[in-house]
Amino acid sequence: MNNSRSKPLLLLAAAGTLLTLSACGKKAEPTQEGLAPAAQGKAQYFPLQSYRVGPYAAGGSGFFGGFIDYMQLVNARGGVNGVPLSWAECETEYDVEKGVECYERLKKSSDGSPTAATNPLSVGIAYATLDRSTSDKIPLITINHGRTDSTDGSIFPYVFPLQLNPYSEVSAIFNFIGTRSGGLDHLRGKKIAVLYHGSPYGKETNGVIDRLASRYGVTVEKIEVPHPGNEQQSQWLKIKQFAPEWVILRGWGVMNPVAIRTARKVGFPTDRIIGNIWSNSEEDVVPAGATAKGYIAITTHPSGTNFPVLQQIKAEVIEKGQGNLADPKRFGTVYYNLGVVNGILNVEAVRVAQEKFGHRPLTGEEVRWGFEHLNIDAVRLQALGAVGLVQPLKLSCADHEGGGAVRFQQWDGAKWNLISDWVQADRPFLRPIIEESARKYAREKGINPRNCAKES
Fold first, then answer.
1. What gap in Å lies between CA 145 and CA 93, rounded to an integer?
2. Which among 67, 239, 238 has a CA at the least distance from the CA of 143?
3. Is the N or C terminus of the chain more exposed, i.e. has fewer CB atoms within 10 Å?
């Protein structure tokens, strides 16, 4: 980094898949805030199991670019109560085996700084490292994805599917379709196709979709697309024959534009396709060209740059030549903004935990307490410059999701336009299903659930 207010905390490391990036610290002399210089082991460390190559590179590069740029903004302002942030990055290529290897390589910092949390942005890697992170007492953050039953913090104390778990996602989509149909009671007799990615992520919601379909009297056809999704002709011919009123697209990466183009090819209307949270970016629609116009997707956060926190990143990071994106045009896109949101939530957990444990680098166990006590209300959103970018969020020992709401957006051929207010998932309906699955996991693993009523 060449910021006059910062110095490198981490240097380029071993060859191969491991890549350690410089992270901002503070000037050697006191800053305007009167902060002391950063010393060895005095940073708050984030290991990043990232992916910037392969069929899912757009998601990984955008997300980790936004996450890193937000941490650089925090460091440019003196860190979190004087504690700088550091990070190391390891290329996983979205491969589970490499993701586990990266976890083990990076879980401890090179300079002894304590680890705050791990953020793999991969369901497969999250599943594969869940037991490891729990044993290591490092929070595992799976924003908008992951194991739905990890919402139950009494059984998954170190796993946080922040904002939106997969069950909430499909429940909110059913609620939206119900609104478009004149009410949920008008769903009976309708047909919905679900086109899903052939991975643990894609299959995560199949069971709850069946329960929702049974509840509302909907006929559902679930159709799998093998990784990575470059060929979908047979799947869309099956959808055409099924003749659903709506298609829910649970895609990822190259699967999404291929789905949109193939739908048009077989004559299925684009404005009857609803993309899930990983089928909602500019990179999902721009490659599909004109065929994407009218396509609908959910979002927990809008694209755009007209948020104070984005403008601060632009002024204090990007315009100083320190931005992490290879393509500056992706600033303010869906994946980038999700990375910023993820950065905000991770840093806020550290900040909250510091108020209990002290203004110092914290252990993963202490940061876990911070996540469980996040309460990002309207006042805090205003202070963060994130009103409209982040939904109000309150977590607890029992609830590691904290949100469960989405908005719907539609592509007009050039940009996303919001077409709904917040649509809440049916969390009271979903909670018993989540607890049932969590209890089964606890029995299999011999876990004694925490008593969240006694947690403070």
1. 18
2. 67
3. C
Concatenate the DSSP letters of all residues of 387-448 into one string.
BTTB--EE--SSBSS---EEEEEEE-SSSEEE-SS-EE--HHHHHHHHHHHHHHHHHHHT--
**Mean pLDDT over all residues of the chain?**
91
Does the predicted TM-score (pTM) go above 0.85? Answer: yes
pLDDT at 309: 98
What are the phi and psi torsion angles at 156 (to 5°)?
-120, 75
Q: What are the backbone dihedrals phi and psi of residue 118, each rounded to the nearest 5 degrees, phi first? A: -115, 140
**Type of residue at 245:** E
CA–CA dist 406, 17 (Å, integer): 36
Q: What is the DSSP letter of 56?
A: T
Residue 205 contacts residue 170 (beta carbons within 8 Å):
yes
CA distance 70 to 49: 17
Q: Is the pLDDT of residue 26 over 80?
A: no
| Closest by Cα among 294, 301, 248 to 414 | 294
Report how far residue 278's alpha carbon sits from residue 169's, in angstroms, rounded to the nearest whole number: 11
pLDDT for 383-428, tens place per residue?
999 999 999 999 999 999 999 999 999 999 999 999 999 999 999 9
Domains in the chain, ordered, with CATH?
18-164+304-394 (3.40.50.2300), 167-299+406-433 (3.40.50.2300)
- CB-CB contact of 181 with 190 (8 Å): yes
Strand 405-411 and strand 416-418: pairing?
antiparallel
Contact indicator for 281, 300 with CB cutoff of 8 Å: no
Query: Which residue spans within 178-332 are E strands per DSSP?
Result: 191-197, 219-225, 246-250, 273-275, 296-299
Paired tokens of 455 = 């947690």
* Angstrom distance (rounded) from CA 128 to CA 119: 13
Over 70: is that where the pLDDT of 15 sits?
no
Q: Is 189 exposed, middle or buried (0-12, 13-18, 19+ CB in 10 A)?
A: exposed
Residues paired with 193 in a beta bridge: 221, 247
pLDDT tens string 352-369: 999 999 999 999 999 999
With cut-offs at 50, 70 and 90, classify the pLDDT of residue 456. Answer: low
Q: Distance between CA atoms of 143 and 160, rounded to whole angstroms?
A: 7
pLDDT at 39: 54
Comparison of pLDDT for 247 and 54, the residue scoring more: 247
